[in-house]
Each structure stands twice: as C-alpha cells, then as structure tokens.
Design brief:
Belongs to the binding-protein-dependent transport system permease family. This protein is an all-alpha fold and 342 residues long. The protein has one domain: MetI-like fold. The chain is built from twelve helices and no strands. It starts with 5 loop residues before the first helix and ends in a 30-residue tail after the last helix.
C-alpha cells in the first residue's frame, strides 16, 4: 500500500481545522443574534418574583452582561481547553450532558451507516450484476431495483419511523415497543436511518458500476474469458466503490441530523432529545456545544475519507506517489489483475 504524503495530510488537516473554526464562529454569531438570551428565558418569568437587581446579578454570574466580542473570545478559549460551560436551564456541565447523550447517538448513526452501505451494495449488485441479465424474469426486477433509490430518498425520516413502528411493532409484533432489549431498541431506528441514506449511495454505486463496466479494460477482461462474478468482484467493484466512499463520508453529516429526528420519533435518549430541550429552553451553551461536536464528528469522518482516497486509488497519486486533487484524477486505467483469465 502506498504511503501518504505528509504535505497532503497537513493541507487536509488544516482545511478541517478551518471548517471547525468557521462553524464555531457562525454558530456563535447566529445564536447571539437571537432576541433575548438564555438567562432571561430561564429566569425572566414574572412568576419567579426576581427583581431587576437579582436578574442583573444572575446575568453577571453567567457573563451575559459583557460585550459580545469578549464573550466570544472567552467561549472560544474555554472550548479549546475542553470546557464547554454549563447549561443555563439545569446548571449541569455541558460536557457531562454530552457524555450521557453522545454515545447513544453515535451508536445509532454508526449502525445506520453500516446498514445503509450494506443495503446500497445489495441494491446496486442486484441492479447491475451481468449474471442476472440472462435469467428469465430478472429484467423487471433489475428495473425495480434501479427505480428504488429515487423512491427511498424522497421518504421523510420521521414518516419512515412512524410506518415502521405501526407495521413492525403494532401490526406484526416483530419488534416490541416496551421492555425491548438494547439490541431490539436499535432495529427500527437503524432501519429508519438506513433507508434514506442508502438511496444516494445506491445511486452513486449503480452509476459508477455502469461507467466502469463500459471501460475498455473490462471488455478486454471479458474477452479473455473472465466470468461476470469475477469482473464485478475483482475489477469493476474496486473502481466503482471509490466514489461511494466519498458519498458515504459526506452523508455522515446527514446521518447525524437524521439521528436527531429518529431519536425524537422513537423517544431515544441522545443528542436529539438534548437538542430539543435546549431549543425549548434557549440553552445557548448546550446548543453551541451540540453544533461544534456534530461538526467535529462530520469533519473527522470526511478527513479520514480524504486521507484514504489517494492511498486506495493509485490514479490520484501523481509522480513520486504524491496525492493529486480529486478533480485532477486521470482517466481510468486498466487495473486488470495479474490473476485475470488468460
């Protein structure tokens, strides 16, 4: 396996850090631009009977009376030290709140991504496998499989979740709604996430398989006696999976967003429930931390994809093994293995 150019890795890492800084700044500015503040939303209720002087003391305790630029710099410095502040609504440390909610959301998002990739591969292989073209009755099936991703991508996440609960739990009783084990409690949420995410993955994979199958080196390998399964598994898939890898990295951000909706539909504890509560209470420290953590996860996943891409695809490595940019990738070359049929 080729080595990774350190300068390429530094450029990609620097770009990832820049995205994090911009996301933090944008989130802070947008939250600060909202009318009112979290302190007044929590303590400004007349029923609490607090005097203006007491409200001013509370605002001073939270630093809400300071100029915005100083609050921004203090918050940025605290985030760099790992101090995410305290929740205005509950008084608990934001780090502790995220520590309780994040593992559940990451488990749901990670399982959803794995299930989406598997579903996308099954759809793409069934729609493009050359060995199925000669079988009777498979033309309609392959047409349905090709038309399935556009239908799947149009389905809202919350609607999929409601339908799965109604059918799988209430009608068929396959997955219990109450007293479910941790594994059973993941089945329907993971399926809810995987269906819309698998759709664009399957579309990209089908298109990539079609494009690679039309390349001259595939025709040459087929003329040399290579079987359809050998071509798909050893030659076509190896080239077609690379664009799908990029799409999977980009869709991970959508997975995190979909996990928030899914957790609300299924009543799961996680970032989704924490975010909903923070929005209701105008809990700015929690909202800012959720945005930054979500951005960090998304940036890390895409950074790993960027760093793996030139290692996996020799076409993206220039002279001396240095990675090219993706847009500068040359045309497909013949990657027929030495083990191809003679």
């Amino acid at each position: 396996m080729a080595s990774l150019d350190p300068r390429f890795a530094l450029r990609r890492t620097g770009g990832a850090l820049l995205v994090l800084v911009l996301a933090f700044t944008a989130a802070y500015v947008l939250l600060a631009a909202l009318p009112g503040d979290a302190v007044m939303a929590r303590y400004g209720n007349p029923d609490l009977g607090l005097t203006p002087e007491q409200l001013a003391e509370i605002r001073a305790a939270y630093g809400a009376d300071r100029p915005q630029i100083l609050q921004f710099l203090d918050t940025a410095g605290s985030f760099l030290r790992g101090d995410l502040g305290y929740s205005v609504s509950s008084g608990a440390a934001v780090t502790a709140l995220l520590g309780e909610a994040l593992p559940s959301t990451l488990a749901l998002a990670g399982s959803g991504l794995v299930a989406a990739v598997l579903l996308a591969v099954l759809i793409a292989v069934g729609a493009t496998h050359p060995g199925l073209q000669d079988l009777p009755g498979t033309r309609v099936l392959r047409g349905l499989l090709r038309g399935l991703p556009p239908l799947m991508v149009s389905l809202p996440v919350f609607w999929i979740g409601i339908v799965l609960i109604q059918v799988m739990s209430f009608q068929l009783g396959v997955v219990p709604v109450l007293n479910a084990s941790p594994m059973q409690a993941l089945i329907l949420p993971v399926a809810t996430l995987a269906i819309p995410i698998a759709a664009p993955l399957a579309q990209v994979l089908i298109r990539s398989i079609d494009e690679v199958s039309a390349q001259p080196f595939v025709t040459v390998a087929r003329a040399r006696g290579a079987s359809a399964s050998w071509l798909l598994g050893r030659t076509v898939a190896r080239n077609a999976l690379l664009p799908t890898l990029t799409m999977a990295g980009l869709l991970f951000g959508e997975l995190v967003g979909g996990a928030v909706v899914t957790e609300a539909v299924f009543g799961r504890l996680g970032i989704g429930q924490l975010t909903a509560q923070a929005v209701t209470a105008r809990d700015t420290p929690v909202l800012l931390a959720v945005v930054v953590i979500s951005t960090l996860v998304f940036v890390l996943v895409n950074l790993v994809v960027d760093l793996l891409y030139p290692v996996l695809d020799a076409r993206l490595r220039g002279p001396g093994g240095r990675p090219r940019t993706r847009s500068a990738a040359p045309a497909l070359q013949d990657p027929v293995d030495e083990g191809a049929p003679a």
